[in-house]
Amino acid sequence: GKLPFEIVGLVCESDAGLEDAEKFGTALNLANHDGINSARRNKFQMNEECAKMGLAVVKQKLCQTIDEARVFARSLGVVEDAEDVKPDIDADSKTDEDNPDDNNFFNAGVLGRGTNTMSTKFPFCIVKPFRGSASDDVFLCKDVRELDVAFGKIKGSTVFG
User: Which of 2, 9, 104, 141 could form a disulfide with 147 if both were Cys (CB 3.0 to 4.6 A apart)?
Assistant: First the structure.
């Protein structure tokens, strides 16, 4: 039978249900629905689609093995052990006078400091699952040792790894 109301939209609140929501929207023939697009769920594909549209994107590789991940990270200049290397910070950059301890450079504030007050040429890599929600299982790795740990956590995950 006919519904006593009109469905005008569909909202999905999590990555886990997005594929089903896309299928449901297609089946309902919603006017504001643009079909099924795996790039909405796959971070690797999303980055590739952005590149095709001319947007600046990061270098990326979809790695199946830890060896692939290590080779790619090394090709980006990621070091084996960051404890042996001091970051090359631009001389013109601001420093964090409240936190002069060099070790703090690698702690949680790197993204904020990197985008707000400091530029660095020290290579990092981000290891993340190709699916997932928000920043779950996303790791900022300063060296290959951290990459090994992050890759192991993601591959060992039963969610999206």
Answer: 141
Query: Which pTM value belongs to this model?
Result: 0.67
Dist. CA 46–CA 146, nearest whole Å: 25
CA–CA distances in Å: residue 123 to residues 27, 76, 115: 46, 7, 15
Distances in whole angstroms, Cα of residue 21 to Cα of each of 5, 6, 14, 57: 19, 17, 10, 28
Confidence of residue 122 (pLDDT cuts 50, 70, 90): low
Distance of CA 121 to the CA centre of its chain: 20
Q: How far is CA 147 from the centre of its chain?
A: 14
CA angle 72, 55, 79 (to 5 degrees): 25
Q: Which pair of tokens denotes residue 39?
A: 């790039």
CA–CA gap between residue 145 and residue 141 (Å, rounded): 8
Q: pLDDT band for 105, please (50, 70, 90 cuts).
A: very low
Instruction: Specify whether the CB–CB gap between 144 and 157 falls below 8 A.
Output: no
Contacts (Cβ under 8 Å, ≥6 apart) of 61: 68, 69, 72
Over range 9-19, report the average pLDDT.
84
